[in-house]
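[step 3/7] fold_predict: job queued, chain A
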Amino acid sequence: MNSNQQLSSKHLLGIKDITVDDIHLILETAKQFKEVINRPQKKVPTLRDVTIANIFFENSTRTRISFELAQKRLSADTINFAASNSSVKKGETLLDTVNNILAMKVDMIVIRHSSVGVPHFLSKKVSANIINAGDGTHEHPTQALLDCFSIQQKLGQIEGKRICIFGDILHSRVALSNIFALKKLGAEVRVCGPSTLIPKHIESLGVQISHNVRESLNWCDVANVLRIQMERQQISYFPSLREYALYFGINKEMLDSLNKEIVIMHPGPINRGVEITSDVADSQHSIILDQVENGVAIRMAVLYLLASRTN
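[step 4/7] structure written:
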């Protein structure tokens, strides 16, 4: 696969840091890789001489597996590093850990960390390409890119579409990256949830705010439903999960009452019966499993474009 176009940066740290042209290039490249992963022969030799380290300081299933599979499809050599089994537990610093890995001639690092800004910090300290796989409650750029790709594949375009992000906006790095990406691509964006889970001053990003789920479902073309992140909540933001489900959960009756078809998305993992019921998650409205498939194509595109960039 050849491309004369390049990304504007040697890293993917966040959607805020890349251009509209970068996003379009990634989405177009992902289309080609989606064709590749649906062929009988799913592997290409594109990154045969590239070594990639997956460094995850937070638990992850979907993102880690998606990146690993993307790397294998591109024939890259991969190293998987889990902080729970590492020398970090013995007091080694993050930079020492990364430099030790780089001493093994690693070309690219995919990193997830609970602290905001870790990928940005590393990008200033090491020569390898850095891909942010999630930093605290800040950004998750490849999730936003795969969400945009999924909307584009389903609806044909993003510009002019109405996208509502439902749920725990306050603790979500997915929400912030999605807002940046969707606004750059010309969508109208709204967030909907309890007032305690909507960040202050989020209107400054050019989004609408609503606390009415039914009205927001009527307004939108796409509902991107986020899970309640109990592990990030140090205090109680609502009385109970049952009450949250009652007032802010999305169920089949709500969708059936709409006078139009809408698209249902969820980045996973799903708290079934809380933010979304099973009959919605598994309905014909849902493209949740398409998001999973598209995640591999998007991550293949990002890895390919960063590896082929002339630094």
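[step 5/7] annotate
Residues 231-235 have pLDDT under 50 and may be disordered.
The beta strands are 51-56, 77-82, 108-113, 129-135, 162-166, 188-192, 208-210, 222-225, 263-265.
exit 0
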